[in-house]
Design brief:
The protein is α/β, with parallel strands linked by helices. Helices cover about 50% and strands about 15% of the residues. It has eleven helices and seven strands.
Length: about 250
């Protein structure tokens, strides 16, 4: 069993990718399910096999504890960690090979609070991987792209499991911009040079340190380009996951 945690900033396409990758797995006869870990989501494009909204209600939390939406989201995230046994038992009922976790819309709720580490450690770090989603519309300048990579690096540091950077919504950016983003992912020196061109006096020392981190995590910066509209990149994403856990060997299809 592989636990696949889909994380990223708000609007990066977590829910859509979780749904699309799950559908792709089904089409390829791989045994997968989706777990919704966002108690605050109003509408989903899929029917999750496991949904935390069945036992954690954001509206009830707001009423019971006299909290606003943000406070309720924080408390709800903590409640997922506290009630981890319930989540484990529900997952065990399915015996699926791939468990795709659609995490809360706000990155900080899962990555910067305890819930992410508690859930991953409880379900098994050795069987877990993170997909960090990068929105290309927020990555068309060197500065913005470096910011996304640094968030990814922090996520890897916090959760301490293998990570794959996934560039989403590639059907929504022009070819030239996409090629540039992919080149930055492959070539940190190119990214560094382009960063310095913008403002060499301001970015020199800062960018030196950032690029140093990115170079240390060179494999981590490789991008898998995907589109949930065309399903482009789903096979590459699956292959990347298999490479990390099985050296590229497929699990037996169901």
């Amino acid at each position: 069993m592989i636990n696949i945690f889909v994380v990223g900033t708000a609007g990066s396409g977590k829910t859509t990718l979780a749904h699309t990758f799950n559908e792709w797995c089904h089409r390829m006869s791989y045994d997968s399910i989706v777990v919704n870990l966002d108690p605050g989501v109003v509408k989903l494009p899929y029917s999750p096999e496991i949904d935390v909204r069945e036992w954690i209600s954001l509206e009830e939390i707001m009423k019971e504890y006299n909290l606003g939406p943000n406070g309720a989201q924080i408390l709800a995230a903590d409640m997922i960690a506290i009630d981890l046994k319930n989540l484990e038992e529900r997952i065990d009922e399915y015996k699926a090979d791939y468990i795709i976790f659609d995490t809360p819309g706000q990155l900080e709720l899962f990555v910067f609070r305890s819930v992410g580490k508690v859930v991953i450690e409880g379900l098994g770090k050795k069987n877990s991987i993170t997909l960090f989603l990068i929105d290309p519309s927020l990555s068309t300048t060197p500065t913005n792209f470096v910011s996304q990579l640094m968030l990814s690096a922090i996520t890897q540091f916090r959760l301490d499991v293998p990570i794959i950077n996934v560039l989403t919504k590639i059907d929504m950016v022009d070819k030239e911009a996409l090629e540039m983003i992919m080149e930055w992912g492959k070539n940190p020196d190119k990214l560094h040079n382009d960063l310095l061109v913008k403002n060499p006096s301001l970015y020199y020392q800062l960018s030196e340190g950032m690029i140093g981190v990115i170079k240390e995590l060179q494999a981590h910066t490789s991008l898998v380009a995907t589109s949930s509209e065309t399903w482009e990149g789903m096979e590459d994403l699956y292959t990347g996951i298999q490479q990390i856990f099985y050296g590229g060997e497929d699990l037996e299809k169901k």
